[in-house]
Amino acid sequence: MSYYETHQYLFKLFAGYLNSDWKEIYLWGSQEPSYPPIVRKLKIELSKEEIGETIKQLKEIIIVGKNSDNDGWMDILTWDLNLGYYPPGVGQTYEEWLSDVLKILEEPMEETQKNFIPKRIKE
Question: What pTM did the predictor assign?
């Protein structure tokens, strides 16, 4: 069974929100395109239960990745979960980046809502 089949919430985040066109499909205004606003956008659109399941799946992927090399991370995230964001391109390891995504998902909703949340171009 693939991670696509077992980790549908992460697939939604990566394929639906952080796909290969992620910089072009949102209105950024004066903001520089970056992943934290996209993760927060997903978060405000999910129920508490869905956020919890996304966090659980992300923690599972972090554990799996720790037992793998950087190519293993890339295979799981890019091929199975359709991630279009490339952490090494901005000086982060996959583990660092996933840990940052986890922090955003775990932050209080009040904190999430205080931050810039982009709109999709065709919302």
Answer: 0.92
